Amino acid sequence: xxxxxxxxxxxxxxxxxxxxxxxxxxxxxxxxxxxxxxxxxxxxxxxxxxxxxxxxxxxxxxxxxxxxxxxxxxxxxxxxxxxxxxxxxxxxxxxxxxxxxxxxxxxxxxxxxxxxxxxxxxxxxxxxxxxxxxxxxxxxxxxxxxxxxxxxxxxxxxxxxxxxxxxxxxxxxxxxxxxxxxxxxxxxxxxxxxxxxxxxxxxxxxxxxxxxxxxxxxxxxxxxxxxxxxxxxxxxxxxxxxxxxxxxxxxxxxxxxxxxxxxxxxxxxxxxxxxxxxxxxxxxxxxxxxxxxxxxxxxxxxxxxxxxxxxxxxxxxxxxxxxxxxxxxxxxxxxxxxxxxxxxxxxxxxxxxxxxxxxxxxxxxxxxxxxxxxxxxxxxxxxxxxxxxxxx
Length: 392
Ligand code: PSV
Ligand code: MN
Known about the structure:
- An eight-stranded parallel beta barrel has the order 1-4-5-6-8-10-11-12, surrounded by six helices. Strands 2-3 form a two-stranded antiparallel sheet.
- It starts with a helix and ends in an 11-residue tail after the last helix.
- About 45% of the residues lie in helices and about 10% in strands.
- By secondary structure, it is α/β, with parallel strands linked by helices.
């Protein structure tokens, strides 16, 4: 049985190589359908978004990649953008496709009844694989806003056929080391039926496609009371958990800071990740944030989110697995629950401060950011031009 000090040392080792990917769109202006609030110093292009993400990595040490969203982050030369990221000490990560913002997509993208619109949507997804080739990215994230608002509006079954056909064409275009991350979402913007509404649908399509297709669990995309950690355990066991989009579901969709309102849920999810081997040194699970910061400063919001994931991970790593297994085998319901709660109730902040010190970082990344003068500098530098935001 591992002593607490061994567990702590092993946890520190895992935390040291933890990798949390940031979304470029977190640094742009965002809001609700009621209002987008601008903030001074917001990046005006993908180059500046990458600079801000590099700042988060400089302070946290565990956020070395930034995901792009195409066409929000469209540039002429993606190799140059990847080189820019490398110069700043980070790399381009997942490429997120966007087939939800053109007028053509009113009735859907890859499941649209019009074959011309479907062709346009698939061509965009193929273009995203070209971007991946240029940036060296492994993952293509697919989220479809497709669905219907009214019963009878379209044929639910035919839409599944169209979806399967589109996915299969994109899958065929992937390189040997590239993957599709298929993301599901309960509802919105389609309110009667969504074409990829849940993990079961995503899982079934991924199974049909093959081993390079895996599921992305966006923590915001579930009905209230859904047991997300069960989904995580199931998909990991099946070898089909590809990625997380972390956020917190108190908006109808996603977008609030992960772990801010329900750190216990995040802990339970991370415990299943640990239990299922999702934090092993050779893990293929991508841990990404998918958030916007509508009212809080964006760089600070990202730093806080990274820290929340780290804290939940640290607690999950401290669970005494032997004691838990013993209590479970013995049917000791309260004992088993107590083992989990002991880990959850551990104050891991000193341990994370130690981790940061060992990485040559400030123990308090939020305070270090405030002291750094970065925010003031970019407010000063980024005058004029068009701030990035939804659709830009
Ligand atoms: C859709 O709600 C989503 O979760 C998808 O991942 C999109 O790419 C992202 O949000 C856009 O912010
Ligand atoms: Mn998402």
